[in-house]
Every structure is written in structure tokens, then in C-alpha cells.
Task: inverse folding
């Protein structure tokens, strides 16, 4: 009786193993028809005007913008527009379109009417496009002739903003008006027609999105492979597993896993430019005279406290450990050397003002009135988003550094929505939160984070309010540069936040399949220029 | 005819040692021992048993492997986590966290459920209907989902997790106690007590309650394991205990991206969960078999 | 009998209604989906505009009534996260994946639990019985997410026998199904064992043995048939447990089912989808309970009059 059961069981087990079997994994490029990229996930929808960067990854292959990005330098290069100019007062911008660009699926040639149409999508009621506030101020979008479009804005739009708008922000994706007229938004939901080196192939929500090579692309370049797939795999360990087992050919991995991935022979491709910066923002910093919610007793309202917290952190150690050395120090939030108002002196000022010095931190805290009997207490709120998993590790590390100088910092996991609601409603005076923010032009950043009309209120005071107000009114590039520099000086000197690092986008690839890839990084989808991937021969 | 057996005892076997051993063998030794070492001792004596501080670590010591792997030291027997904190100490303190959460949740949930079950079974009628409907709704709640939404609403904290657990647990106690109450209600001694003028409360707590205690103990023991699993699942989904606490679920969640490289960060807390819950389940099984075989459907 | 059914159906509907109120209130309490949707560049005017567009500026009771009115017509609103898709269409799109996973998990656990339960009953008290008990209990003691991660790592990466994530064919189902199903093995096994023990002692089995029917036929044909009814009683609980377990399993294996959908939806404050899923889960559970109750009432008339 028992013997029978045993043998039955054994039989079932053997049958199961036989069923599983093994499938040969393609290991050479000759067999790779479809290149698969494992992504941490993105909000899935074809309605690009409702999708925020970096989720524009899903549009990069098939929907193009007026200007492109040089893969090495990130500079604006002609794409769908070949020439562009502006009026002396910066209120009118003219774009000359490329002739002979064909939309996918036979929807005809791209003309200025399509650009006007794309703009109209950005200003819809349900639009959450990055620069909707700017696009709405376009008093007129005129198709002068078949290949020329003029944007006339109510206020002057300076070159950094305009270049951001038509290139890196990924807002103005040129989509077929003919398709919209014929099929409406349902057609766009089902199979959108773009102009890019790939064509939309279809998607399964929660699983993947597929693209097919466009052999008739206006650049004339031939992509090495036929199909491209973005597969969604939220778990970091899963992406590594997929890469190692050969199920996918490219994946982005958190820095924690880089060492091991390299040890296992995977190849790493880094973006040409820095993509995101991570800083820690301290709530409660609303110093504009007469501000309703300001509480002078809030922990971060004291400059000594902010300074102490900044110098209590050993940034070099954090860089080596939490980020595995794959980042660069940020001298202050938001600015890169190419940004408007960059001051080369910020590097040396940073060494002077923000150097690691826990003893001095303890001293400053004592001067601010805190000590062993009355420790400084606040909360650090950490969150994770797909592809941005370092938040909790940063928060934990900060808590340890702060504890070393006698500060009682409680780390709490929240989600992004909660953090944002809290600081937007001015309820954030007892919390700090690390945030990984994507590159943006300096004036865009100052408006969002350091100006009362933005919704983020990281640090606002009368000086910034006045100075940025002048920036907004100014047409003179030199004057703007000086004003922005003054703003940056002020932010760094006041310890407005805790700047940490800039980092680039890094992806790992199967060395037997992917030969080379150059991409800039701060495109709207972080990874971009998939057409430039060359397979191993 | 009773069977007689004689055993030839070795020369060193003293009769009362054999007797004592027979008595001890009646108790579920293995689960109790497991439970003692993995949960009770660590939880109560954590500060004395743990080799290091569970909250402090040094970034330069991060991700050290366990002592038996190359790179491991006897400083950190089970290795260190992402922030250089000693794994063994964290697991020991984690026992304290798990035990506290589950005991509070079961205690409070059990009291509420028992009280409502007694009331429901004893009074019957409308009260019974209402309470049983509440029980049904409570059992139908997709608890993990509601926990996620609740934590999204008020933020992760001890209180939130315990509240969710109480809402999850009370209904089972209520239903069990109600069933038992219904069975006892019609018995003679209850009727005699009523005739003697005993108040409702006195009857419920003095006469009925002692009869349900056995079942409650079995249920509670089985529930502790379930609560630990649920809490760690919540922590895994990011909706559990606050990060500051070295809860086992949080530790497994933290280490999940490192399962390739630093497997010990997830493996040991998961093992701790498993051993604890396994011993609790074995203990509960034994209790059920010995205290109240009627409960085999729990 | 009719009256009983009518009362129970009414009570079930009430339960679903209460559930909808709870999840509606909690979801709205949890924050604002607009905070997830808008880029950092957004200003207060954008918040107000989108609030109005999505109807979130109305008082909560008004929103609830609008929601109930539409829900009765089968419209659970539009997803805020997947723009362009309605909550119901997302649910129906993802439900087959979860049903496939849960069904397969149930199949595996039944296939495992039946023989183990029978073995444990037949060899009661022996080491086989204990071994069976431990295997089953192991399933109830392992944290599902940890088991999933370990299985994925051992079988998908180290051994490379099975795929590590996603949905595809039979091979993709195996690891998630084991992760999800092992928990149920204990429940089913315990039931099979105890009802087998009961049946094996009964009169007609003793009669069969006396009649000379071979032992294995007695066990498999006569006992098991009667013992199989017992697991049906906990079917509702098992269904609920499978649905709940799917949330964690789908997250680990990136299985595109309802569990993963709702986790994402909670994170994005996608109210409509969260409501739709919670009500669906609760509805399924309550329906199963209802059916079991009716079945029992049919079999045991005493229950009808309670």
C-alpha cells in the first residue's frame, strides 16, 4: 500500500521534470530578432500628454520631437525640424520642418498641421504635460506654410526653456493629425502613428510594449535588429535574473547589484551625461515675510541646524557604499556646468561649507539649543519608484550619520503621493525626504522648487522671490545669467537643502548580443536612442 | 486481554528516570524547543543575547557575508546588511517586534471577538444576526488590500498594523465562541443558574467562558503564526511596520534585490519567520489534538 | 427554502455595500491621485483644473452616490493611472491571469494534498503521518514572498530550468503556482485526513472489508469518495486565501494579474481601480460563502431555520 503510493509519487515527480525540459537560449546576435529591454515599469498609456518623464521611455522609439539630442553631448540637433529661429523679443519661435518625413502605417507626410495638432493635445483639459503651463501661453500656433510653424507666446520664452520644451522634455511629440481626424483618440490608444526609427507594435498592460523596425525612416539609417521590446519587471532581482538567463538583453539595475553583474560578465553602458540628482529636502522652509504656515520653531528653520545636518554626512563614504562609486558629488541641487548661471566657484565653496565634520556639527547643534537632554527630532520619509530604489538606503544611511551627532531621525517608508501631498499642503515642517529628480533647465528648477508660485515649496524667501521675479521679466541672456548665479550662490550659502549626488543612467547588457550603444541620458525616457544599438556580429 | 511487555533495562537505567522521561515525552518537545530558541528567549532577553546593537551600523562594514563564507568574520556571525548592521542582532531584536505585535493583536482581537461571540450566542435573536453579519463582512474583507489602502491613508506605524490585524482576527474568535456558546446554552446547569437569579454577565463569564477557553488557546496559538506571516507580507509590500523597527518582514523586503549577491540579508530573516511559524503550528496542532479534537476544522 | 435563500442573498448584498463604503472612504482618505499624475512643474492651478476634470472636488458623499449609481450600471469609472482605460476593462483584462494562476495553484495543491492526506490517514500515527504533517505545515509556515524569491533564484537563475517572471506558457506558471499553492496544501490535507479517518471507521467500510474487497479499493473507492466532500466546505476560505495570496505572489513574479494591478493602483492612488478590485474580491468571496451556505441548507434542513 505504502509502496504503491511512493512509486506513484515518484512517477509523478519524474513526469513533471520531463515536462519542464530546457529551451536553448539565443546567445549570438545572428539569432536575435527582437531585442528585449527589461524596465522597472512605467505608467502605461499612449496618451503622451498625460505621461510624465521618465515614463516617456515607452515613446522614445516611435514618437519624435522637433529637435533631437546629440547622443554624446546632448546638444539640440535637427530632427523633425531642420532650422529654427526666434524673434528678438523671444516671443516668436519659428521652426522649419524636414521635408519628406512619412508617418507610419501610411498616414501621409508630416506637415506643419501635425505640429499644430500635437500642440493642441498638450493643452487639453486632462493634460499633465511637463510644460503645459508654458504651452498654454502660446497665443497663436500658426502653420505659415506646409513646412513652417510659428509659435507666438504671450511672454518671452528664453532659449534654455524653449530647447527644453521641444527636445528633452519630450512634450511635443509629433503625431499624425490625419490619424486623429480619422480615428480619434481611440485610434491613438490602439495604434499610434509616429515618425521614429521604430513603429508601434502593440502592448499588453503589465507585461510589455513591442516596436517594429521602420525601414523607411527619414535618417536613412538601418537599425541592426527587427523588433524591440520593453518588458516590465519591477523586481530588481528579477531583472538581473532575466538578464543572466538570457531572457532579456538589456536591463537597468540598481547600483547595489552592479559589482555582481560585472563579476558575472555583463557589460555596462553609461549615459553620456548626468541624468538625475539626489538631494534631501527639508520641510518647513517658507521664509517669505508674512507666510501663513511658517513656524520659526520648526527644526529646519534654524540655519545652524541645516548646516550641522549637512556637515554630519560623510558624502564620500555614502558615494562609495550606497552608490557603489557610480555617482558624482553635487555642489548644490539642480545646477550642472551647462546650466544657466553656473558658477565655477561653487566647487571650492562646497568644499569649504559642506565638508564632513561631525564634531563641528555637534557644536552647531549645541549652539542651536539641542543637546543630549533635548535631542533634535524629526522624520525622514523615504519612498521608492520603479527604477529609483535607493531612497530607503539613503534615508537609513542619513539616520545613522545623524545619530552619530546626537540627532534622533526616524525613518519612515511612505509613498510618493503621500510625501507630495504633505509638502504641497505646507504640512512638512517636521520631515525631510530624499528625492531623485531628473535634470531640468535651471530656471525651470528654480521656479518649481524655490519660488512661491511653484507647487513644491522646498525653500522660499524674499531674496529668491525678488530675484527670480526679475529673471522672469528679463530678456537679456547676460543679465539672466548673473541673476541665476546669485540665486545659486544664495541657495548654497543658506544650506537650503542637502545636496548629495548626480548620477548617470546605467544599463547592463548581454555581452554576446549588444556591441555598442551611445545615448545622452537626460532624454525624456532616460534610456533613448535605441536605434543606435549595434549588435555583436 | 491486556498485553504485558517486559523490557530489559540497561544497568544504568534508574526506574524513576525512565518514568520521568515517559512523562516528558508526552509533551511536544521539538516545537517547544524551537519556539523557545527562535522566539521567546531572543524576544525577552534581546539586550543580553544580541552581540551588537540592532540599530547602529557602519557603512564601511556593509554586506559582510556570514562567518563560514570567505570575507566573513566572527564579529558578525550571520553577516551584515546594507548599512553594516549585524544580522544576528537584528534577527534577535526582530523576534521582540514580531512577538509584541502578534501578542497585542491576538490579545485585543481575542477579547473583542470572545466578548462579541459570547453575547451573540447567549442572547441570540436580533443581536446574534447583527453580530454574525459583521463577522461575515469582516471575514469577506480582502485584508491585504485594505491594509494597503489603510496604510496609504494614515502611514505605516505600529498602531496601523495592529489595528488591521485586530480587524482581521476578531471575527474568527467571535464565530468560534458563538458556536460553542450555542452548544452549551441549552444545558441544565445554565438553566439552573438562571433560576437561581444569576445575571446574564455572571452566567456568560463564570459559566460559559471557562468552557470555551480550551478552543481559544488552540486558536490563539495557531493565529500567532498567521499574524507573523501577515505582518511580514505587509512589510514586504511596503505597508507594514515602520522602517526603524528590525521587523523580519522588513528585513526580507530590504534584501530582496540582493538575493543574488548578498543572499543572507533576506535568507536569515525568512528562515526565522519560517521556524517560528512552523513551531507555533506544530504546537497548535499538538494542543488541538490534546485539548479539543472537535476543532480539527480550524 | 426560498425565504432562506432570499434572506441570505439580501444579507450578502448588504455586505457588499458596506464593503464599498469602507473601501471608498479609505481610498479617498489615502491621498490624492493628482499628486501622482502631475509632474513637479505643476502649480496650484493645475491641481484645481484636474480636480475638477476628475470630479474630485465634489464633497465625498456626492462622489459616493455618483460612484454607486454608475457601478450599478457596471461602470466603475475610468482608471486614473492608465489613461484611456476604464477600471472594469482593466479588471476584466487582468482577471484571467489571476484565475489561471489561482486555478493552477489549487490544482497543484489538490494533487499534492489528496495523496498525502490519504497516506497520513492510512498510516496514522506512524512516521509517514508525521512527515506528511510537516510537509503540509511547512507550506503554512513559509512566508510566500520569501518562498517565491528563493524558488525564483534556485530554479530560474541557478539552474535555469524555468523562466523567472512574466506570463507565457505552462513553464511560466509553475513557480508562481507552487508559491501560491503550498499554503493551501496544509488546509486541504488536514481535512482529507480527518474525514478519511472518520469514514474509515464507519460501518459500511467495515462491511466492505468483511465482504472481502481488497484494501486499496476500500481506501480509494469507498473512503475517498466520501471524504472528498469535506474540502468543499472550506472552498470559500480557500478561494479567499488564494485571491489574497495572489497579491504577494504576483508582485514577486511580475505576474500580470489582479493582485499586481491593485498594488500598483494603491500606490498611484488610482481609486477607481482599487474600488473595483476590492469589491470584486469581496464579491467573489461573499458569493462563494452564499453558495456553500445554500448547499448546506439544502443538505441539512435544520440550518434553514436558524
Result:
Amino acid at each position: 500500500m505504502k509502496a504503491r503510493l511512493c512509486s506513484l509519487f515518484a512517477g509523478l515527480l519524474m513526469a513533471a521534470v520531463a515536462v519542464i525540459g530546457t529551451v536553448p537560449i539565443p546567445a549570438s546576435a545572428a539569432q536575435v530578432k527582437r531585442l528585449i529591454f527589461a524596465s522597472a515599469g512605467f505608467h502605461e498609456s499612449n496618451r503622451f500628454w498625460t505621461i510624465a518623464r521618465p515614463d516617456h521611455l515607452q515613446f522614445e522609439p516611435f514618437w519624435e520631437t522637433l529637435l533631437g539630442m546629440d547622443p554624446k553631448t546632448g546638444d539640440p540637433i535637427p530632427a523633425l525640424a531642420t532650422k529654427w529661429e526666434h524673434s528678438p523679443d523671444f516671443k516668436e519661435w519659428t521652426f522649419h520642418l524636414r521635408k519628406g518625413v512619412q508617418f507610419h502605417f501610411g498616414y501621409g507626410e508630416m506637415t506643419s498641421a501635425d505640429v499644430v495638432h500635437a500642440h493642441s493635445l498638450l493643452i487639453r483639459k486632462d493634460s499633465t504635460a511637463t510644460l503645459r503651463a508654458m504651452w498654454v501661453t502660446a497665443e497663436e500656433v500658426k502653420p505659415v506654410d506646409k513646412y513652417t510653424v510659428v509659435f507666438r507666446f504671450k511672454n518671452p520664452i528664453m532659449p534654455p526653456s524653449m530647447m527644453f520644451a521641444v527636445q528633452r522634455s519630450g512634450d511635443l511629440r509629433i503625431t499624425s493629425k490625419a490619424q486623429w481626424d480619422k480615428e480619434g483618440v481611440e485610434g491613438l490608444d490602439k495604434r499610434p502613428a509616429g515618425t521614429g526609427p521604430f513603429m508601434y507594435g502593440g502592448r499588453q498592460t503589465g507585461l510589455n510594449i513591442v516596436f517594429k523596425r521602420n525601414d523607411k525612416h527619414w535618417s536613412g539609417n538601418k537599425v541592426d535588429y527587427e523588433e524591440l521590446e520593453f518588458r516590465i519587471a519591477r523586481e530588481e532581482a528579477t531583472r538581473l535574473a532575466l538578464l543572466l538567463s538570457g531572457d532579456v538583453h538589456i536591463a537597468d539595475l540598481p547600483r547595489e547589484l552592479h559589482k555582481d553583474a560585472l563579476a558575472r560578465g555583463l557589460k555596462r553602458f553609461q549615459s553620456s551625461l548626468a541624468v538625475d540628482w539626489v538631494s534631501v529636502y527639508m520641510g518647513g522652509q517658507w521664509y517669505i515675510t508674512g507666510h501663513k504656515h511658517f513656524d520659526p520653531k520648526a527644526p529646519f528653520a534654524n540655519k545652524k541646524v541645516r548646516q550641522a545636518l549637512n556637515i554630519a554626512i560623510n558624502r564620500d563614504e555614502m558615494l562609495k557604499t550606497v552608490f557603489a562609486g557610480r555617482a558624482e558629488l553635487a555642489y548644490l541641487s539642480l545646477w550642472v556646468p551647462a546650466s544657466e548661471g553656473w558658477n565655477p566657484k561653487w566647487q571650492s565653496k562646497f568644499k569649504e561649507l559642506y565638508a564632513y565634520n561631525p564634531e563641528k556639527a555637534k557644536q552647531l547643534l549645541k549652539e542651536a539649543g539641542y543637546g543630549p537632554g533635548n535631542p533634535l527630532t524629526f522624520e525622514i520619509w523615504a519612498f521608492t519608484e520603479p527604477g529609483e530604489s535607493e531612497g530607503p538606503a539613503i534615508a537609513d544611511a542619513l539616520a545613522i550619520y545623524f545619530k552619530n551627532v546626537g540627532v534622533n531621525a526616524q525613518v519612515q517608508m511612505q509613498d510618493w503621493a503621500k510625501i507630495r501631498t504633505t509638502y504641497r499642503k505646507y504640512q512638512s515642517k517636521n520631515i525631510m525626504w530624499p528625492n531623485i529628480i531628473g535634470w531640468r533647465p535651471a530656471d525651470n528648477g528654480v521656479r518649481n522648487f524655490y519660488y512661491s508660485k511653484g507647487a513644491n515649496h522646498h525653500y522660499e524667501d524674499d531674496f529668491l522671490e525678488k530675484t527670480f521675479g526679475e529673471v522672469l521679466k528679463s530678456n537679456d541672456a547676460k543679465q539672466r545669467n548673473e541673476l541665476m548665479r546669485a540665486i545659486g550662490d544664495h541657495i548654497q550659502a543658506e544650506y537650503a537643502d542637502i545636496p548629495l549626488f548626480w548620477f548617470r543612467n546605467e544599463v547592463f547588457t548581454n555581452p554576446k548580443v549588444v556591441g555598442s550603444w551611445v545615448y545622452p541620458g537626460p532624454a525624456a525616457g532616460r534610456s533613448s536612442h535605441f536605434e543606435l544599438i549595434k549588435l555583436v556580429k | 486481554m491486556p498485553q504485558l511487555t517486559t523490557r530489559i533495562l540497561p544497568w544504568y537505567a534508574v526506574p524513576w528516570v525512565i518514568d520521568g522521561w515517559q512523562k516528558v515525552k508526552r509533551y511536544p518537545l521539538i516545537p517547544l524547543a524551537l519556539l523557545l530558541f527562535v522566539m521567546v528567549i531572543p524576544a525577552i532577553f534581546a539586550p543580553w543575547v544580541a552581540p551588537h546593537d540592532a540599530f547602529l551600523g557602519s557603512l564601511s562594514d556593509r554586506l559582510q557575508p556570514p562567518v563560514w563564507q570567505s570575507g566573513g568574520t566572527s564579529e558578525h556571525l550571520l553577516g551584515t546588511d546594507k548599512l553594516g548592521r549585524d544580522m544576528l542582532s537584528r534577527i534577535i531584536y526582530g523576534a521582540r517586534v514580531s512577538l509584541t505585535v502578534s501578542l497585542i493583536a491576538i490579545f485585543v482581537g481575542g477579547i473583542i471577538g470572545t466578548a462579541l461571540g459570547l453575547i451573540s450566542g447567549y442572547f441570540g435573536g436580533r443581536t446574534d444576526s447583527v453580530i454574525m453579519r459583521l463577522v461575515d463582512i469582516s471575514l469577506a474583507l480582502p485584508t491585504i488590500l485594505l491594509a494597503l489602502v489603510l496604510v496609504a491613508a494614515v502611514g505605516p506605524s505600529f498602531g496601523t498594523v495592529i489595528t488591521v490585524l485586530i480587524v482581521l482576527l476578531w471575527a474568527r474568535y467571535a464565530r468560534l465562541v458563538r458556536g460553542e456558546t450555542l452548544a452549551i446554552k441549552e444545558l441544565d446547569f445554565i438553566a439552573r443558574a438562571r433560576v437561581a437569579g444569576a445575571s446574564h454577565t455572571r452566567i456568560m463569564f463564570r459559566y460559559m467562558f471557562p468552557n470555551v477557553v480550551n478552543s481559544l488557546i488552540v486558536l490563539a496559538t495557531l493565529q500567532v503564526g498567521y499574524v507573523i506571516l501577515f505582518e511580514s507580507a505587509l512589510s514586504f509590500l511596503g505597508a507594514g511596520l515602520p522602517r526603524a523597527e528590525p521587523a523580519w518582514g522588513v528585513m526580507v523586503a530590504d534584501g530582496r534585490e540582493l538575493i543574488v549577491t548578498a543572499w543572507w540579508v533576506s535568507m536569515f530573516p525568512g528562515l526565522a519567520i519560517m521556524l517560528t511559524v512552523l513551531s507555533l503550528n506544530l504546537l497548535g496542532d499538538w494542543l488541538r489534538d490534546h485539548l479539543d479534537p472537535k476543532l480539527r476544522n480550524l | 427554502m426560498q425565504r432562506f435563500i432570499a434572506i441570505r442573498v439580501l444579507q450578502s448584498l448588504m455586505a457588499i455595500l458596506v464593503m464599498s463604503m469602507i473601501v471608498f472612504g479609505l481610498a479617498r482618505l489615502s491621498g490624492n491621485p493628482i499628486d501622482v499624475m502631475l509632474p513637479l512643474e505643476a502649480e496650484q492651478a493645475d491641481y484645481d483644473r484636474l480636480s475638477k476634470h476628475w470630479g474630485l472636488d465634489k464633497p465625498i458623499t456626492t462622489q459616493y452616490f455618483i460612484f454607486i449609481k454608475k457601478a450599478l450600471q457596471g461602470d466603475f469609472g475610468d482608471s486614473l493611472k492608465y489613461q484611456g482605460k476604464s477600471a472594469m476593462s482593466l479588471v476584466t483584462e487582468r482577471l484571467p491571469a489571476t484565475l489561471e494562476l489561482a486555478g493552477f495553484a489549487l490544482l497543484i495543491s489538490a494533487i499534492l494534498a489528496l495523496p498525502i492526506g490519504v497516506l497520513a490517514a492510512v498510516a496514522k500515527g506512524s512516521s509517514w503521518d508525521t512527515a506528511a504533517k510537516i510537509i503540509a505545515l511547512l507550506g503554512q509556515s513559509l512566508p510566500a514572498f520569501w518562498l517565491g524569491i528563493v524558488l525564483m533564484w534556485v530554479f530560474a537563475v541557478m539552474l535555469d530550468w524555468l523562466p523567472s517572471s512574466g506570463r507565457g506558457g505552462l513553464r511560466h506558471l509553475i513557480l508562481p503556482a507552487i508559491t501560491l499553492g503550498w499554503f493551501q496544501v496544509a488546509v486541504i490535507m488536514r481535512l482529507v485526513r480527518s474525514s478519511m479517518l472518520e469514514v474509515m471507521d464507519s460501518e459500511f467500510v467495515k462491511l466492505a472489508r468483511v465482504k472481502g474487497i481488497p484494501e486499496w479499493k476500500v481506501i480509494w473507492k469507498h473512503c475517498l469518495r466520501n471524504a472528498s466532500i469535506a474540502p468543499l466546505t472550506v472552498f470559500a476560505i480557500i478561494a479567499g486565501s488564494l485571491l489574497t495570496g495572489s497579491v504577494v505572489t504576483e508582485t514577486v513574479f511580475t505576474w500580470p494579474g489582479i493582485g499586481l494591478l491593485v498594488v500598483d493602483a494603491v500606490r498611484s492612488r488610482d481609486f477607481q481601480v482599487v474600488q473595483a478590485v476590492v469589491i470584486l474580491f469581496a464579491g467573489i468571496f461573499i458569493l462563494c460563502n452564499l453558495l456553500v451556505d445554500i448547499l448546506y441548507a439544502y443538505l441539512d434542513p435544520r440550518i434553514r431555520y436558524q
Chain A touches chain B through 34 residues (CB under 8 Å). The radius of gyration of chain A is 26 Å.
